[in-house]
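Appendix C reproduces, verbatim, an entry submitted by the partner laboratory led by Prof. M.T., so that reviewers can inspect both the input and the predicted structure.
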Amino acid sequence: TTKEQQNNFEQMDYSKYLRTKYWRFVRIAIFRRDDKRCGWCHQVERNMEVHHKYYRGRGQERPGDLITPCTECHRMHHQKPDELIFRVDIIFLRNGNDRAIKGARLLGTR
């Protein structure tokens, strides 16, 4: 983005920023990178979101700043992080996958 675009993004209401053509492009790129798989529970879901792990400023996101969670994991991350860790553990144990703890560690809550 240009310096002028970044200034515009910074002054913009966050919900309006999420409707910009720039953010839509970034969002699609992150979905493609993550193959529409939740970055926490690793399930392939239809309802995916993009979550900022780090905020550098609107229009300055780097790929490593963003992760693709499913709607349920994203909601739990913001409202009940301990329950999200439990959700990730259960999903992985049910699927016989031993990456549950590694997935939970990405949350930075434990």
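The beta strands are 51-52, 66-67. Additional entries are available on request from the coordinating office.
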